[in-house]
Design brief:
The structure holds two protein chains of two kinds. By secondary structure, chain A is an alpha/beta fold. Chain A has 13 helices and 14 strands. A five-stranded parallel β-sheet of chain B has the order 1-2-3-7-6, sandwiched between helices. In chain B, strands 4-5 form a two-stranded antiparallel sheet. Classes of the chains: A alpha/beta, B alpha/beta.
């Protein structure tokens, strides 16, 4: 049984972790597009003012500028709202960074529904899909702030482009503070023979709660947390598909092109299985609280448990 | 200076030949940029023959990535690539794509093609160099049509804000873009005023005069505390009679007869 720890946010984790990493590695630099407030990098600016570049409200410039830093051997962490990092600066990510194979870490803040009352234009429903489609990018949606910190450390040591999601707000932690991130590896959170539950990002905590509810009903759940959306842990996915009766993916993102899409691609090619994809069903977000939207869109614990129970009884 | 002008003309001939052998390509903007590229690589820039990765080298970004052919000719002369590879330009499975590619061609600093991004990358390079107390200069060559891209002006602000005085930009001002003249499609003038307003040191020169190019770079290096732009007035399709100042020769294919005419035009200039 997974136990939740302290509620932490990725915002405070970002600044503190990068500052710590930057003390060890003088090549780490930070690039912002007038959203230090969202990323949490202000403390980095205090510690290393000369290693912080803020290009203003210009996400395209921010990504290409980061590519130039990387070309000279720097390890830039560039952040901005996930919607803008993926959509507005898509071509810069694709060409300035991915095509050139530059060592840039792109951090999409206020990811998905966590942008909350900023509303539909600011809620990134497709950032995972967009970055998944870029050759060479690793795509990671960490489950909690502890894993987020581990991902930042991994990214600083990995030579190549990485897209990392960061959230707005505090969320329960369920992984240890000193966890080591293994790219492309899923984490098995519970075992069971009925439902294979595959989650990433903030949906994993909901999955943990849903698992407890389903267990109460006598439904066994093999819950795997899949923070690396690309490359997917296909081995663990197929194992889970073989061991359970149906699979459910849950993500803070559209069901098109993200975790659900990635899982469907693998299953179709390697092990056809019944799959239910929970997430935004090809629609935008709205101006509302996170809890409201997660429930309305069917990705909170109650909705996940309800979908699983219904599918099992179908 | 005669040496540089002659070298430029030789590079122009080889560029024309390489594009023709490739089955066509971006003649216009390749031929207009020859003197700028030649002056940079054979006089201005700190480079080492045969050592494209020399850490202290000056950096050059060809933001108008479609002008790869003349740069490839130059890289072959610098000993960075085998001249025999020029025959592979744009060929299936070949190693020289028209839009420059750093992962395929030694001596290319940045793979470009999508316009407007090169100057941002140059800003990042110049910032990193300053952080490392590397005194190198970062040069970037943009097309004038490229200046339609909004990102250029984002980067223009960034360069000025961060006082990137080791960034020297060239604008290949050949006054033509794909669909027509720059002033018909999307007027750029008053161009020098625009760059000045963005906080840049601005010079306007004859972009086919290597002496003027050298002098302008020397002046740019003296303008400390701000980035420099050199607006180089050029002729699109320079040197080939039927291409000069014709926007339709941004890219295209020519007939064997036109090739013969072009070669004669370029040899005629050489003999003058």
């Amino acid at each position: 049984m997974i136990e939740f720890g302290e509620r932490r946010d990725t915002n405070a984790t970002y600044g503190a972790t990068l500052t710590a990493l930057a003390k060890e590695n003088s090549n780490i630099v930070v690039v912002e597009a007038d959203l230090m407030k969202a990323s949490g990098s202000a403390v980095f600016k205090v510690a290393f003012p000369e290693r912080m570049f803020n290009v203003g409200i210009a996400e395209q410039d921010a990504l290409s500028f980061s590519a130039g830093l990387a070309a000279m051997g720097k390890i830039p962490f560039v952040s901005g709202f996930a919607c803008f990092m993926a959509q507005r600066a898509c071509d810069q990510a694709m060409n300035s960074i991915a095509y050139n194979k530059y060592n840039v870490k792109v951090v999409g803040t206020y990811a998905g529904l966590t942008s909350e009352k900023n509303g539909g234009t600011h809620i990134s429903v497709s950032d995972l899909a967009i970055y998944r489609a870029m050759p060479g990018f690793l795509v990671i949606d960490p489950g909690d702030a502890n894993e987020f910190a581990a991902v930042l450390r991994f990214a600083s040591e990995y030579d190549g482009p990485v897209y990392i999601r960061s959230n707005k707000g505090v969320f329960p932690t369920f992984l240890p503070e000193d966890s080591v991130f293994k790219p492309g590896k899923a984490i098995v959170l519970s075992d069971g023979a009925d439902v294979g539950l595959i989650t990433c990002g903030i949906a994993t905590a909901e999955g943990v709660k849903a698992t407890a509810m389903l267990n109460e009903l006598g439904i066994g759940v093999r819950h795997i947390h899949m923070p690396t959306v690309k490359p997917l842990d296909t081995e663990e996915l197929i194992r889970t598909a073989k061991q359970t009766r149906l699979l459910i993916t849950v993500e803070n993102h559209s069901v098109i092109g993200g975790l659900g899409g990635a899982v469907a691609e693998v299953l179709c090619a390697q092990f056809p299985a019944k799959l239910i994809r929970l997430g935004l069903q090809d629609h935008f977000g709205e101006t509302a609280t996170l809890g409201y939207m997660m429930h309305e869109y069917g990705i909170d614990a109650d909705a996940i448990a309800s979908s699983a129970e219904k599918a099992m009884n179908a | 200076m005669v040496r540089l002008q002659n070298k430029a003309q030789e590079i122009r001939r080889k560029t024309f030949e390489a594009i023709y052998n490739a089955g066509g390509g971006h003649y216009g903007g390749s031929l207009s940029a020859i003197e700028i590229l030649t002056a940079l690589h054979f006089d201005i820039m700190k480079l080492k023959q045969g050592e494209p990765e020399w850490p202290e080298r000056d950096r050059f970004i060809l933001a108008k990535g479609h002008a790869g052919p003349p740069l490839y000719v130059i890289l072959s002369k610098l000993g960075y690539i085998d001249p025999a590879r020029l025959a592979e330009l744009d060929q299936d499975g070949g190693s020289l794509p028209k839009h420059v590619d750093r992962l395929k061609v030694q001596g290319i600093e940045y793979s470009s093609g999508p316009l407007g991004q090169g100057i941002s990358v140059a800003c990042g390079m110049a910032s990193a160099a300053r952080l490392d107390q590397n005194n190198c200069y970062v040069y970037v060559l943009m097309g004038d049509g490229e200046l339609d891209e909004g990102q250029v002006w984002e980067a223009a602000m960034t360069a000025s804000h961060y006082r990137l005085d080791h960034l020297i930009a060239f604008v290949d001002r050949n006054r033509n873009q794909i669909d027509g003249t720059t002033e018909d499609i999307m007027a750029l003038e008053p161009l020098a005023d625009k760059w000045s307003a963005f906080g840049w040191h601005v010079q306007t020169i004859d972009g086919h005069d290597t002496e003027a190019i050298l002098s302008a770079v020397a002046a740019a290096k003296k303008a400390t505390g701000k980035p420099s732009v050199i607006i180089a007035n050029t002729v699109k399709g320079k040197g080939v009679s039927f291409m000069e100042n014709e926007y339709k020769w941004h890219s295209g294919q020519i007939t064997p007869e036109q090739y013969t005419q072009g070669v004669a035009d370029l040899e005629g200039v050489s003999k003058q």
